[in-house]
Specification:
This protein is an alpha+beta fold and 396 residues long. The chain is built from 13 helices and 13 strands. Helix 1 packs across helix 2 and helix 5 packs across helix 6.
């Protein structure tokens, strides 16, 4: 491809859309902790002084949703009105209904079972919670097999939050976002072209002070020095001021940062968000599985880059289609890789839930700084335990 630029962004936990994602997943976690078989489809909206939680939840346990919301906001850092939002004084409204029985009947008993086409073992399977297509992706340009742009963006956003919480930079406030542009030569990253850091701050801090602090204590602490040169641009709070932030500055909604959640725009996205959804929703569980498959293919050396698409029909356990794309980097044919996928990975929702142990409260932590490529958590879909067998079966 010669030279080209690519850009990805990440946001901190104080960003209004990410607040909404974390609230939705905190509610999900609280319910799964007491009722692992609950059906949860939870959405959140945050705006000035108000949190609205809505959705369809079927559970045998009680969940103090307002309490979960306030504790989530407290952990994020919105504890004072002068930050633009106060976890103790904001209004929390809830509007919850049960899951539609028309959906439940297809999820509780998959279509194949109802028609008697599956074995006794497969009766344990559940149908997909909705139709849709999900994508997974992996690339060998980083050790975690993620695109470098989104990997750096997440690490910078996480560091931005860390220096605020430890008060290493005491004037920062919870809202913030990061953007990283990398120059590639022949599809290989060679240098960082531009880094943008925007952070909510105390109204009296001077921009020059903030610029120096963020470059020295955030950017240079994260970005490898060999990727930075004399022409790398740093844009720190480009408007010059970012005092009004969080829900007071912008309304936040669940599911509006799906590219931040996945691969930073490098790979395609099926369109469904993850947060607030229990694992019977294939938007979430099948996306995790698609990442697992793609990562193991790259880890096995079958390809340098791999994108997988899996598509489902509501109530049907088996995917209606599986597609593989290796962008000309495959060491064996895509047809051979597809054969290996079919032989080694069970893509039915029940199998995904069982193999990844997804009916447990693990979702709040992945609702910010990405669901993939995490090195701070032992996530089952990030393991490469199938790589050796794939490599052997491929004859490599």
């Amino acid at each position: 491809m010669g030279k080209h630029m690519f850009t990805s962004e990440s946001v901190t936990e104080g960003h209004p859309d990410k607040i909404a994602d974390q609230i939705a997943d905190s509610v999900l976690d609280e319910i799964l902790a007491h009722d692992p078989l609950a059906r949860v489809a939870c959405e959140a909206l945050v705006t000035t002084g108000l949190v609205l939680v809505a959705g369809e939840i079927t559970t045998k346990c009680y969940c103090d949703i307002p309490g979960v919301v306030r504790e989530t906001l407290r952990e994020i850092g919105y504890t004072r009105a002068k930050f633009g939002f106060d976890c103790d004084t904001c209004s929390v409204l809830t509007c919850i209904d049960e899951q539609s029985p028309d959906i439940a009947q297809g999820v509780d008993k998959p279509l194949e079972v109802r028609s008697g086409e599956m074995s006794d073992e497969a009766i344990e399977a559940i149908g997909a919670g909705d139709q849709g297509m999900m994508f997974g992706y992996a690339t060998n340009e980083t050790k975690e097999l993620m695109p470098l742009t989104i990997s750096l963006a997440h690490n910078l956003a996480r560091k931005l939050a860390a220096v605020r919480k430890t008060r290493e930079i005491p004037y920062l406030r919870p809202d913030g976002k990061v953007q990283v542009t990398i120059e590639y030569e022949n599809s290989k990253p060679v240098r960082v072209n531009t880094i943008i850091v925007s952070s909510q701050h105390h109204p009296l801090v001077e921009l020059d002070v903030m610029r120096e602090d963020l470059i020295e204590k955030v950017i240079k602490a994260i970005v490898p020095p060999e990727l930075i040169d004399s022409t790398t641009r740093y844009l720190i709070n480009p408007t010059g001021r970012f005092v009004i932030g969080g829900p007071h500055g912008d309304t936040g909604l669940t599911g509006r940062k799906i590219i931040v959640d996945t691969y930073g725009g490098v790979a395609r996205h099926g369109g469904g968000s993850f947060s607030g959804k229990d694992p019977t929703k294939v938007d979430r569980s099948a996306s995790y599985m698609a990442r697992y498959v793609a990562k193991n293919i790259v880890a096995a050396g079958l390809a340098d880059r791999c994108e997988l698409q899996v598509a489902y029909a509501i109530g049907v356990a088996r995917p209606v289609s599986v597609m593989i794309e290796t962008f000309g980097t495959g060491k064996v044919s895509d047809e051979k890789i597809l054969e290996l996928i079919n032989a080694n990975f069970d893509l039915r929702p029940a199998a995904i839930i069982k193999n990844f142990d997804l009916r447990r409260p693990i979702y709040r932590r992945v609702s910010v700084y990405g669901h993939f490529g995490r090195t701070d958590m032992d996530l089952p879909w990030e393991r490469t335990d199938k790589a050796d067998i794939l490599r052997t079966q491929a004859g490599l």
